[in-house]
């Protein structure tokens, strides 16, 4: 195959136009290209409103060496490639007398289960929540009526927290063995759109994800695996520093010498159980903040210099800002044409997240704007201090919103934060936030007269409330400074009429379950896995870690004895 980079096309183009452009670069007739595969697709909007779609493609031609010697692409644009397919490792030699147990059916659990099942290990997947369709009904009831099922919600159930999200699949994890590509291929086989194989920022969407995770489960079952819902693991069986199995909430036990913990970042009761069993864990940094909403048309205009159309998707953004305190403020889980969702999983505690449907055609676009917090911020010690910190913020959000999602105009939020800062003894008011006297400093409502009228797009009940009272002052101040700095380059982003809501507290796990090079905890046979265990951040990286742990188990053990 010949790989061609940097094929630039106008937004309005066809597949045949790409073929013609590739042929021109290679100096061959278009009909000489026997096959063309899109490897990567991205949008170049640096010179807006002139926008290009940029492709990397692999093409097959006759007499490849001859074509390569004659083509005239720019240096680095053209190269011969050999596509390396993912290979599952050879199985080990130790005898595995019981079927492996996987706790959790988020991306890590599902992909670990898929790989083990495909290669003959017949794993048993245990999920505290419901299958996807029933879970969907539980979530919709919660959003409409406020009735929370603590075991079946946005965080718990088949597919994990990622099911009710934008379904973003991009990751920064290095992938020399091809696990990332394998994850995407398996998702496509399960019903995900084929464009996730090449989009620079691939996403599936909540409406499609429900079907995809259901198909993944059915595939696992067809390979000989088993998935049990409404099966909550409450304890581990351990003897002589070797895991022996798990105890279930109904009092039953399941024996196995391999237990894979793919528990997700919100399984707080499970983390407490692990602490009681003295499983080594440590507190880790994560991030907290708020959701910010703008009209989708505004974000499109900012990013493209024009509105989105049939040739351009709803605009995305990724932004960062360095504050005077040294804290970094950045966007997370940006949802073009999406919704803010009530993502709570515990009674009298409230957390938000973002989600989009496949079409990303909602009226608003939103993103988490977050700031990193470390164990020094938690106000406690021990591996579970971050969980306690999350809970305090979520209890405050629940109180302020009277059980519904609290929402505030950015202008009111900003004014309250600055006023509070100015009244602190020894503070230097707005100057401390690094904004006063700057050329682009944003007076509140600088462009409010041109700002489109819009309302919050929230899945779940909401109310206007004092969002500025949720977070500690230092975090609020960093967020205001960060949003204002972002607004200097994205005119309209920091406008008074934008909405903020909170609290965004489930960005990643505040805990890491320690494991060694074999993938095991200090307790033999116990394999921490995925985002909840502290080894991933997002759907794809969690799925890749699930595959990694499946490889670790397989490299040690033979397939299960019948």
Task: Report on this structure.
By secondary structure, the protein is α/β, with parallel strands linked by helices. The chain folds into three domains: 2-80, Alpha-Beta Plaits; 101-281 and 513-556, FAD/NAD(P)-binding domain (3-Layer(bba) Sandwich); 286-504, no CATH class. The chain is built from twelve helices and 24 strands. The strands form six sheets. It has a seven-stranded mixed beta sheet. A five-stranded parallel beta sheet has the order 7-6-5-11-24, with helices on one face. A hairpin with a 2-residue loop joins strand 8 (233-239) and strand 9. Helix 5 (179-189) crosses helix 12. It is globular. The protein starts with a strand and ends in a 6-residue tail after the last helix. Mean pLDDT is 91; it is low at 426-449.
Features:
Alpha-Beta Plaits, 562 residues, FAD/NAD(P)-binding domain, 5-stranded parallel β-sheet, globular, 24 strands, 3 domains, 7-stranded mixed β-sheet
CATH superfamily of the largest domain: FAD/NAD(P)-binding domain
**What would the principal axes of the Cα set say about the shape?**
globular
* CA(first)-CA(last) distance: 44 Å
Strand content: 15-25%
* Spatial strand arrangement across the major sheet: 14-15-18-13-22-19-21
Round the Cα radius of gyration to an integer and report it. 25 Å
Largest sheet: 7 strands, mixed
- Assembly state here? single chain
Average pLDDT across residues? 91
Task: Please tell me the CATH architecture of the largest domain by its name.
Answer: 3-Layer(bba) Sandwich
By DSSP (H or I, 4+ residues per run), the number of helices equals: 12
Share of residues in helices:
25-40%
The CATH topology of the largest domain: FAD/NAD(P)-binding domain
Number of strands: 24
Number of domains: 3
What are the low-pLDDT stretches, counting only 5+ consecutive residues below 50?
426-449
CATH hierarchy class name of the largest domain:
Alpha Beta
């Amino acid at each position: 195959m010949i790989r061609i980079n940097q094929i630039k096309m106008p937004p309005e183009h066809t597949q045949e136009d790409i073929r013609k452009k590739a042929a021109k670069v290679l100096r061959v007739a278009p009909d000489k290209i026997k096959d063309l595969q899109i490897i990567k697709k991205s949008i170049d909007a640096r010179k807006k409103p002139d926008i290009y779609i940029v492709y990397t493609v692999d093409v097959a031609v006759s007499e490849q060496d001859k074509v390569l010697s004659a083509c005239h692409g720019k240096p680095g644009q053209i190269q011969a490639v050999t596509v390396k397919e993912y290979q599952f490792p050879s199985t080990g030699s130790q005898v595995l007398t019981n079927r492996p147990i996987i706790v959790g059916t988020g991306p890590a659990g599902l992909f670990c289960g898929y790989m083990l099942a495909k290669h003959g290990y017949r794993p048993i997947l245990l999920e505290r929540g419901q299958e996807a369709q029933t879970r969907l009904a539980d979530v919709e009831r919660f959003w409409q009526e406020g009735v929370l099922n603590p075991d079946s919600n946005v965080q718990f159930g088949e597919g994990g927290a990622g099911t009710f999200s934008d379904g973003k699949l991009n990751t920064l994890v290095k992938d020399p063995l091809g696990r990332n590509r394998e994850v995407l291929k398996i998702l496509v086989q399960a019903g995900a759109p084929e464009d996730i194989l090449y989009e620079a920022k691939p996403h599936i969407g909540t409406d499609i994800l429900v079907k995809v995770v259901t198909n993944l489960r059915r595939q696992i079952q067809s390979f000989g695996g088993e998935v049990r819902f409404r099966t909550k693991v409450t304890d581990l069986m351990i003897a002589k520093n070797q895991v022996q199995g798990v105890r279930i909430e109904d009092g039953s036990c399941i024996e196995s010498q391999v237990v894979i913990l793919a528990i997700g970042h919100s399984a707080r009761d499970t983390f407490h159980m692990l602490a009681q069993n003295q499983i080594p864990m440590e507190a880790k940094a994560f991030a907290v903040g708020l959701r910010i909403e703008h009209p989708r048309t505004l974000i499109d205009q900012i990013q493209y210099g024009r509105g989105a159309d049939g040739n351009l998707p709803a605009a995305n953004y990724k932004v960062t800002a360095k504050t005077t305190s040294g804290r970094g403020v950045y966007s997370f889980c940006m949802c073009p044409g999406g919704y803010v969702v009530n993502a709570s999983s515990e009674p009298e505690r409230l957390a938000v997240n973002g989600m989009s449907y496949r079409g990303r055609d909602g009226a608003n676009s939103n993103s988490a704007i977050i700031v990193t917090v470390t164990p020094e911020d938690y106000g406690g010690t021990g591996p579970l201090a971050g969980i306690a910190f999350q809970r305090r913020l979520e209890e405050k959000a629940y109180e302020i919103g009277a059980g519904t999602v609290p929402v505030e105009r950015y202008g009111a939020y900003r004014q309250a934060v600055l006023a509070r800062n100015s009244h602190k003894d020894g503070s230097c008011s707005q100057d401390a936030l690094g904004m006063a006297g700057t050329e682009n400093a944003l007076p509140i409502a600088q462009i409010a007269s041109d700002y489109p009228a819009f309302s919050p797009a929230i899945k779940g009940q909401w109310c206007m409330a004092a969002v500025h009272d949720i977070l500690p002052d230092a975090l609020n101040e960093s967020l205001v400074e960060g949003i204002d700095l972002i607004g200097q380059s994205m005119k309209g982003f920091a406008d008074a009429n934008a909405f903020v809501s909170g609290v965004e507290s489930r960005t990643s796990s505040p805990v890491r379950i320690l494991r060694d090079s074999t993938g095991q905890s200090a307790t033999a046979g116990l394999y921490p896995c995925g985002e909840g265990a502290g080894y991933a951040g997002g759907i794809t990286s969690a799925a890749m870690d699930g595959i990694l742990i499946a490889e670790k188990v397989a490299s040690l053990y033979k397939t299960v004895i019948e």
